[in-house]
Design brief:
The protein has a single domain, classed as Serine Protease, Human Cytomegalovirus Protease, Chain A, CATH 3.20.16. Helix content is 22%, strand content 40%. It contains four helices and ten strands, in the order βββββββαβββααα. It is elongated and about 50 Å long. About 3% of the residues have low confidence.
């Protein structure tokens, strides 16, 4: 099993639906110098959404995935009323932005070695899960929304006030504008 990691920015939180959106994979080399071709992803929705790649701890499903030349945009939901403490723990970590990364679980189908690098250029791959992770290899793979944020004026105001101080917030706000324009 191979994994590729990225970060997601919490853009909004919907307490009722528990919807998250983000970037699952990009064409940008990750921290281990691998390049994943977004168009090479072979998958069938829904995909399992896991916490920290723990296959015994599913927390929801990825229900939408849009493959673009630059990356794969996803939407999914965290299960509700499961009675499972680990699902509630994962949801609370996402809402609090303690866990901001997304990471794909995949199997390589076709690749080439990248010249002067240890990395692989993965041209075709079977994508079988997505995980919310604490540390991700691809810094561009991020959660872009947890839906309650957009509906909470006080939270939006506090984030806007901090945006000049924290570069990750600046990036999250820029990503939010980009995704809303889409």
């Amino acid at each position: 099993m191979k994994k590729a990691y990225g970060f997601f920015d919490v853009k909004a939180v919907d307490e009722d639906k528990r919807i998250i959106t983000g970037v699952a994979s990009t064409i940008t080399p990750d921290r281990v110098e691998d390049i994943m071709e977004p168009g090479g992803a072979k998958f069938k929705l829904p995909l399992p959404l896991l916490s920290q790649h723990d296959h015994e701890s599913p927390i929801g499903e990825i229900t939408e995935a849009e493959v673009t030349a630059k990356g794969i945009l996803v939407e999914g939901h965290i299960s509700k009323d499961t009675g499972l403490d680990y699902v509630e723990r994962a949801w609370k970590q996402l809402k609090a932005r303690l866990v901001k990364g997304l990471s794909i679980g995949y199997r390589i189908l076709e690749y080439t070695h990248i010249k002067d690098s240890y990395g692989l250029h993965v041209k075709e791959w079977e994508w079988y899960e997505l995980s919310a992770v604490t540390v991700a290899a691809n810094a561009e793979c991020t959660i872009t929304s947890i839906k309650a944020y957009d509906q909470d004026a006080e939270l939006r105001s506090r984030v806007a006030a901090m945006s000049g101080v924290h570069p990750e917030i600046e990036r999250a706000l820029a990503l939010q504008k980009l995704l809303k324009a889409k």
